[in-house]
From TrEMBL, chain A:
Catalyzes the condensation of carbamoyl phosphate and aspartate to form carbamoyl aspartate and inorganic phosphate, the committed step in the de novo pyrimidine nucleotide biosynthesis pathway. Keywords: Pyrimidine biosynthesis, Transferase. The gene is pyrB. Carbamoyl phosphate binds at residues 55-56, 105, 135, 138, 271-272. Belongs to the aspartate/ornithine carbamoyltransferase superfamily. ATCase family. This is Aspartate carbamoyltransferase.
Automatic annotation (TrEMBL), chain B:
GO terms for cellular component: cytoplasm. It is an enzyme of class 3 (hydrolase). InterPro entries: DHOase, DHOase/Allantoinase_Hydrolase, DHOase_cat, Dihydroorotase_CS, Metal-dep_hydrolase_composite, Metal_Hydrolase. It catalyses: (S)-dihydroorotate + H2O = N-carbamoyl-L-aspartate + H(+). One of its GO terms (molecular function) is dihydroorotase activity. Its EC number is 3.5.2.3. The keyword Metal-binding applies. Pathway: Pyrimidine metabolism; UMP biosynthesis via de novo pathway; (S)-dihydroorotate from bicarbonate: step 3/3. The gene is pyrC. The active site is at 303. Its cofactor is Zn(2+). It comes from Streptomyces collinus. Substrate binds at residues 58-60, 90, 276, 307. Zn(2+) 1 binds at residues 56, 58, 150, 303. This is Dihydroorotase.
C-alpha cells in the first residue's frame, strides 16, 4: 500500500483486493454488540471538509471511531480559495497538532494531491472527493458491494471482478465517482460501459479503459450492475440537456428498463438520488437496488483503508491485538 | 559617455567582429578595431544581438507591487537581454487613461534599466463594454501605440470592430487576448485527455481559434491591423497562416513556455504550470515552433506574469495564472528553436527584437547592428548550459516552471543606448 490514497488509479489489483478483503473483516465488526476495534488507538485523524458532505463525512467518522482513533472534524465551507484560510495554512495548523492522517474533501480537483505532495504536511492523506477528479473510497465501496452481491461475501475473498459487466449512467463529465469507478473496475478486471448524452461525456474519453454509449436500452441486457450517477439540476441551465423530462426518458432507470436487466443484475447509486429523474421510486426501493448497502459498506471500506494506510501490516480482525484481550 | 569596444562578438551569430560603441551609438563594426580610450569587453565568440524587445510584459505597477514593480521588472528585463518592454494594461488602476500610462512611462524613464512602453487598455476597466480614451493615451507623453485588454478578451464583436477602426487614426494596433468567454467558463487547463483524467475544467482550443478567426476577418473588413497575443494551438497557427495568405494585416506572438511545455506537466497539479492560455499538447508545441520558424508567427513575447509565492503555493484552483519569463526567454528560445536547427541567431534577432519593435513602433530598437544605429545590444554566451536558479532572479517574483531545469544560453551583457545595464551577468 502507498502512504496516501489520492486516486483509484494509484491502486494495483492486489492493493484493491487487499482493501476489499480487509473490508470484509471490518464488516464483521458491525455485527458485534460493541462495534469497536482498538486498532488505531492513540492515532489522530482529521476530517478536513472544504465542501458540503453529509454521508461521506459521517461514514469516515464512523469508520475512524470504530477503529478507536481520535477524530477531529474540520468544516471549512467556502474557504477553499480564500487567502485567509488557505489549504496550506489549515493543513499546517493541523499538522502542528500532531495529526496522523487527513481525510480531505475539497471542491478543487487536485487539492488532496497537492496536500500529499507539496511537503506541507507529513500525515497520510485520504481523498474523500476532490472536484470532478476522484473519490477513491466511493469506488472501493462500490466494488465491494458488487463483489458481495455478484460473487458473495465469503466466496469473494481474494477475488476481483474479472468479466463482470458494469454500466455507469449519467453525468460522467462532472462525476468524480465515474472517474474513480472506471479506474478501479478496470484494474479489477471488469468491463465498464459509460452511458450518457454526448454533452455529459468529457473530451478525451476515448482514451479511458471503457466502452462509451449514448444508448441506455442497448446496454441493459448485458449488464451485471447498472450504476446511476447523480445529475445536478443546476446543470440544466448550462444546456447539457434540453429538459429534465427528456433526460429522464432517455437516461432514467424505471421499472420497465430494470425488467430488461438480467435477473441477477443489481442497481446502484452513489447518492443522493434524484427520484423521478434518474431513477424511479419503484427501482430505488426494489430489492435489486443496493443504495443502503453501499452506505453500510462505505464504513467497512473506510475502516480498511485507514487501517492499511496507518500501518496495518497484519489482518485487522482475525488476530486481535493485546489491547483487546 | 565613454567608448566601449566589444571584441570578437559573433554579430547575429556570424563571424566574430568588433563593435565600437561611442556614446549611445554604434560607431563602427569591423575587424581589428582600435581600442584606444575604450573599455574593452572580450566577447570571445559570444553572440551579439540587437537588444531584445518584449511586446508582452506584466510589470504589475501600479497596484500589485508585491508581485513586481517597474524597477524590478525592468531589472529582470535587462537580465534577460531586453532593452524595451511593453507593459500590459491590467494594473490597478487599469491603464485605461492618459494619467496611468504616463505614470508607468515615467517610472520606466526614471529607472533606466530598459525602456518601458505602456500598453493602453482597449476598454474602460478591461470590462469590454466601452472604448477607453485610446486617442488620449496615444497623445500622452507615453505615446501609446499598442492597446490590449490582455487577461481578458475583447469578446464583443462590435467593440472589437470599433477599436480596430478607431486606432487607424493614429496607426495603433489592437493586441487581442483570444479567449471566447462562454467556451472557457470554469476553464483551468487545456481541454483534452489530461483534463478529462484530472477532472480540471477544460479550456478548448476552439475558444482561442474562433476569436482569432473572427478578428482577422474584422481586421480585413475594416482595413486595420490586429495583433494576436500568445498563440497556443495548432489551429490558431492555421488561421493566422490563412489570413496572411489573404493579405490580412495580422501579426502574432508565441510565448517561450508554449514552445517548450505541454499539458502533461499539469499531472503534477503544480500551479507553476497554470497559465492562460493553458499549456497545450505536443502537437501544438511542434506547430508553434514550425510557425515561428517560417514566419507565420512573427514574434516571441514573454507574457512575463509575476505572482508572489503564496499565490502559487496552493491548490490548483486557487492559484493565480501566469509565469515569469523575462529572464529565461532567450534560453528557452535557444533550446527550442536554435538548438533544434529551426532558427539561426539572425532569426532570433528578427523574432525577438526587430519584429516586436516594428509592431509596437519602438523606434530606436530592433535596429541592425551597424554603424550609426542606437547602441541597444545584448551579448549572449550561447555555449553556456546551467540549471535555472530562481533565487537569483531580478524579478520580484519566482513563479518559474524551469526551477532546477537545465537550459542553454546566458545573457552576459546588455547595453541600453550605450549604457551597460548588465555586465558579466550582473546588473549595474
Amino acid at each position: 500500500m502507498q502512504r496516501h490514497l489520492i486516486s483509484a488509479a494509484d491502486l494495483t489489483r492486489d492493493d484493491a483486493v487487499l482493501i476489499l478483503d480487509t473490508a470484509e473483516e471490518m464488516a464483521r465488526v458491525a455485527d458485534r454488540p460493541i462495534k469497536k476495534l482498538p486498532t488505531l488507538r492513540g492515532r489522530t485523524i482529521v476530517n478536513l471538509f472544504f465542501e458540503d458532505s453529509t454521508r461521506t463525512r459521517i461514514s469516515f467518522e464512523a469508520a475512524e471511531k470504530r477503529l478507536s482513533a481520535d477524530v477531529i472534524n474540520f468544516t471549512a465551507k467556502g474557504s477553499s480559495v480564500s487567502k485567509g484560510e488557505s489549504l496550506k495554512d489549515t493543513a499546517q495548523t493541523l499538522e502542528a497538532m500532531g495529526v496522523d492522517a487527513v481525510v480531505i474533501r475539497h471542491g478543487a480537483s487536485g487539492a488532496p494531491y497537492r496536500l500529499a505532495n507539496s511537503g506541507w504536511i507529513d500525515a497520510a492523506v485520504v481523498n474523500a472527493g476532490d472536484g470532478t477528479h476522484q473519490h477513491p473510497t466511493q469506488a472501493l465501496l462500490d466494488a465491494f458491494t458488487m463483489r458481495r452481491r455478484l460473487i458473495g461475501p465469503d466466496a469473494g475473498l481474494g477475488q476481483d471482478l474479472e468479466g463482470k459487466r458494469i454500466t455507469l449512467v449519467g453525468d460522467v463529465l462532472h462525476s468524480r465517482v465515474a472517474r474513480s469507478n472506471v479506474d478501479l473496475l478496470h484494474t479489477l478486471g471488469a468491463e465498464v460501459t459509460l452511458v450518457a448524452p454526448p454533452t455529459l461525456l468529457p473530451v478525451g474519453i476515448e482514451t479511458w479503459p471503457c466502452e462509451v454509449s449514448y444508448d441506455l436500452d442497448s446496454t441493459l441486457s448485458k449488464s451485471d450492475a447498472v450504476m446511476m450517477l447523480r445529475v445536478q439540476r443546476e446543470r440544466m441551465n448550462a444546456a447539457f440537456f434540453p429538459t429534465e423530462r427528456e433526460y429522464s426518458r432517455r437516461y432514467g432507470l424505471d421499472g420497465d428498463r430494470m425488467a430488461r436487466m438480467p435477473e441477477h443484475a443489481i442497481v446502484m447509486h452513489p447518492g443522493p438520488m434524484v427520484r423521478g429523474m434518474e431513477i424511479t421510486a419503484e427501482v430505488a426501493d426494489s430489492d435489486r437496488c443496493t443504495v443502503v448497502e453501499q452506505v453500510a459498506n462505505g464504513v467497512s471500506i473506510r475502516m480498511a483503508v485507514l487501517y492499511l494506510l496507518l500501518g496495518g501490516n497484519e489482518p485487522a480482525v482475525t488476530h486481535p491485538r493485546t489491547e483487546e484481550k | 559617455m565613454s567608448k566601449i569596444l566589444i571584441r570578437g562578438a559573433k554579430v547575429l551569430g556570424g563571424e566574430p567582429q568588433d563593435v565600437l560603441i561611442d556614446g549611445g551609438t554604434i560607431a563602427q563594426v569591423g575587424s581589428g578595431l582600435a581600442a584606444e580610450g575604450a573599455e574593452v569587453v572580450e566577447a570571445g565568440g559570444k553572440v551579439l544581438l540587437p537588444g531584445l524587445v518584449d511586446l508582452h510584459t506584466h510589470l504589475r505597477e501600479p497596484g500589485r507591487e508585491d508581485s513586481e514593480t517597474v524597477l524590478t521588472g525592468t531589472r529582470a528585463a535587462a537580465s534577460g537581454g531586453f532593452t524595451t518592454v511593453f507593459a500590459m494594461a491590467n494594473t490597478f488602476p487599469v491603464a485605461d487613461t492618459a494619467g496611468v500610462v504616463e505614470q508607468v512611462w515615467r517610472l520606466g524613464k526614471e529607472h533606466g534599466y530598459c525602456d518601458v512602453q505602456p500598453i493602453g487598455a482597449v476598454t474602460v476597466g478591461l470590462e469590454g463594454r466601452k472604448l477607453a480614451e485610446l486617442g488620449a493615451m496615444h497623445e500622452s507623453a507615453a505615446g501609446v501605440t499598442v492597446f490590449s485588454d490582455d487577461g481578458k478578451c475583447v469578446h464583443d464583436a462590435v467593440i472589437m470592430r470599433r477599436a480596430l477602426e478607431y486606432v487607424k487614426a493614429f496607426g495603433g494596433v489592437v493586441a487581442q487576448h483570444a479567449q471566447e468567454p462562454r467556451l472557457t467558463e470554469g476553464a483551468e487547463m487545456n481541454e483534452g485527455i489530461v483534463s478529462a483524467e484530472l477532472g480540471l475544467g477544460g479550456w478548448p482550443a476552439v475558444a482561442e481559434e474562433s476569436i482569432i478567426a473572427r478578428d482577422v476577418l474584422l481586421a480585413d473588413h475594416v482595413g486595420s491591423r490586429v495583433h494576436i497575443c500568445h498563440l497556443s494551438t495548432a489551429g490558431s497557427v492555421e488561421i493566422v497562416r490563412w489570413a496572411k495568405s489573404r493579405g490580412i494585416a495580422v501579426t502574432a506572438e508565441v510565448t517561450p513556455h508554449h514552445l517548450l511545455l505541454t499539458d502533461e506537466l499539469v499531472r503534477t497539479y503544480n500551479p507553476v504550470y497554470k497559465v492562460n492560455p493553458p499549456l497545450r499538447t505536443e502537437r501544438d508545441v511542434m506547430a508553434l515552433r514550425e510557425a515561428l520558424a517560417d514566419g507565420t508567427i512573427d514574434i516571441v513575447a514573454t507574457d512575463h506574469a509575476p505572482h508572489p509565492h503564496e499565490d502559487k503555493d496552493c491548490e490548483w484552483a486557487a492559484a493565480a495564472m501566469g509565469m515569469v519569463g523575462l529572464e529565461t526567454a532567450l534560453s528557452v528560445v535557444q533550446e527550442t528553436m536554435v538548438d533544434t536547427g529551426l532558427l539561426d541567431w539572425a532569426g532570433v534577432a528578427d523574432r525577438m527584437s526587430v519584429k516586436p519593435a516594428q509592431i509596437g513602433q519602438a523606434t530606436g530598437h530592433g535596429r541592425p547592428v551597424s554603424a550609426g544605429e542606437p547602441a541597444n545590444l545584448t551579448l549572449v554566451d550561447t555555449a553556456y548550459r546551467g540549471l535555472v536558479e530562481p533565487a537569483g532572479f531580478a524579478s520580484r517574483s519566482r513563479n518559474t516552471p524551469y526551477e532546477g531545469r537545465e537550459l542553454p544560453g546566458r545573457v552576459t551583457h546588455t547595453w541600453l543606448r550605450g549604457k551597460a545595464t548588465l555586465v558579466d551577468g550582473k546588473l549595474t
